[in-house]
Amino acid sequence: MTAAGTPDETTTVPLGPGPVDAAVETIHREMTAFARRARASAGRMHPQLSLVSYTLLGHLEERDGRRATDLAAHYALDKSTVSRQVSALQRAGLVERRVDPDDHRVQVLHLTEAGRHILGEVTESRRAAFRERLAGWPAEDLLRFAAYLERYNAWPGGAPGEEGDGAAPRDTYG
Question: Which of 23, 105, 110, 171 is the least buried, fewest Cβ under 10 Å from its Cβ?
């Protein structure tokens, strides 16, 4: 335990009955509330972008393009779900398909300039909302919270078919 009374990276707490079960239930409840709040706020950030669309655009920007099947695997989404999302993003002019120069049978999704612009606007709105919500937190708490989230999401037992980059799906909790 650290001086602040929170576990450090070397402390492991065995799961079992009692306070640990209560803590796990609290974590689940709070992460579910977080996910619901994120989905609800997505429409307020930009009417064209659902939380899934925003997440997909962000991933395409981070990776400088991806195949739809890669997106489905990374986020543990059904291929038909990704296909519908990508089709909507294409119709909105936010993504485009390009032939993969290494394999002409494959199409890679890339952001358009309009996609980059909208993603930038929404990202800044989200950052402002997080800054406002976290304004009173000490820097040490923010750093610890960020590290805990990264550690949680880096769990190697992620979704089947997930890319081997250690990143768990951003919008799932389990």
Answer: 105
